[in-house]
Amino acid sequence: MIDQLNKLYGDFKKGQIDKTSYVRLMHGMHKVLWDYRDFIRNKNVSSIKISKDGLTLTTNDGVTMICDPEDERTVPLEILNFGDYEMPEMRMIRKFLNKNSVIIDIGANVGWYSLSLSKYVPHGSIMAFEPMPSIFEHLKKNIELNNIVNIRAQNIGLSDKPGILGFYYDPKFSAATSLRNLHENRKKKKIRCRVRRLDDFILRTTSRIDLIKCDVEGAELFVIKGALETLKKTRPVLLLEMLRKWSAKFGYHPNEIIDLLGSIGYHCYYARNGRLAKISKVNERTKATNFYFLDPKRHAKFIKELS
Asked: In the prediction, which pLDDT does 184 show?
């Protein structure tokens, strides 16, 4: 489309198209702007802003995010394509928060969860972990764009031991960045990033955590193994993505996570019609991919209200 726009403009400047014809033809090209207005009407999109610096999308509740022109699956485009992004999960975890809550966002990507939850914890804090340097830059820009002061972004990943690890990264699908090549049919770069254990990082910085969201494309078990002391001490609610097809790439089954967290007292749930349904094992019939882990003592009130 940009070639057509430039050609029409160039032809007009050269006198090859008269003004009346030029205006009519350009109006037809510009009509797409009004088409987008109608397209976003029933979606979680308040506005799309085009400027010389780039393009941003703002949701109905005021979260503004940069749209990466390379990334086909970046969150702003997911919202534009499908109307929203993981909103059932967002509504559920908000129920566990108060204005002072402390949140850990592991696998923050461009910051959708951190940005959306920051206004619900105005006197609390969010620590967002994102190891990939290019994604981390978008995360920082989104935090600055929204003038948020209670998010601390950390350019590291989390695992069961510290080190430098190779991540498979596709700039056209940044959300699938993983320590394993999950989409073998896509061309990827392998980028080396620093990782640490959550236990080594957190226990020296905070004694309280209310919620941990962890979405690391199959490596969730290793994050949990590196966070067990933190979990025993702080007993937060956990939101974990657990996909059998991704964990298989790492040589384990999601039930190993359920068993490991069960060994320190956690129960596993999934969301069903806005309520929590308890689950003891994941099998081939399990449709849920995001799971909630709660401590029956610390979270007794939530379990009673939401089950």
From this structure: 79
Distance CA 104, CA 214 (A): 8
Class of domain 87-306: alpha beta
Query: How many beta carbons lie within 10 A of that of residue 215, not counting itself?
Result: 24
**What are the beta bridge partners of residue 153?**
128
Which tokens belong to 47?
A: 């506005």
Domain boundaries, the chain: 2-59, 87-306
Q: What is the pLDDT of residues 209-236, one digit of tens each?
A: 999 999 999 999 999 999 999 999 999 9
State both tokens at 206: 């905070």
